[in-house]
């Protein structure tokens, strides 16, 4: 069963009606140059420029390539770092050691779309787990 959501195809199993998310070639082809650079080439938006930085609308942030849910607006906060920040992901992210740019960081990628999302740092609000997921708007 195929469900379309914002031009992203989701496969739904008849057995349990749970969507499965995959890297969608049509979604990749529709990316802007900056979105492609960030998500497919592990790039980074310039600080303070992301379209979702000041977003206060309630909802779920999803991967632009696979449609998989990544972060809830309830977990978003203003960290002052120049990128949208969250205290935790929903569940569909993987974390990887990143030694680029001469430093050791933890990269965050979407689990099924394998899109580069940003990085996680241990300097978030202590009362909310202590993590800061610093995520690109793309």
What is the CA–CA distance across the termini?
28 Å
The total count of strands amounts to 11
Number of helices: 2
The proportion of strand residues reads 25-35%
Q: How would you spell out the order of helices and strands?
A: EEEHHEEEEEEEE
State the share of residues found in helices, binned by percent: under 10%
Taking all residues together, what is the mean pLDDT? 89
Principal-axis shape equals globular
Based on secondary structure, the structural category is: mainly beta
Strand order of the largest sheet: 6-7-11-10-9-8
How many strands, which pairing sense, and closed or not: the largest β-sheet? Answer: 6 strands, antiparallel
Characterization of this structure:
There is one protein chain. The protein is mostly beta strands. The protein is built from 2 helices and 11 strands, in the order βββααββββββββ. It has helices spanning 25-29, 33-40; strands at 2-5, 8-12, 19-20, 60-62, 69-72, 76-77, 85-86, 93-98, 105-110, 116-121, 132-135. It has a 6-stranded antiparallel β-sheet with strand order 6-7-11-10-9-8. A 3-stranded antiparallel β-sheet has the order 1-2-3, with no helix packed on it. A hairpin with a 5-residue loop joins β9 (105-110) and β10 (116-121). It is globular and about 40 Å long. The two termini are 28 Å apart. 30% of the residues are buried. Residues 1-9 have low confidence and may be disordered.
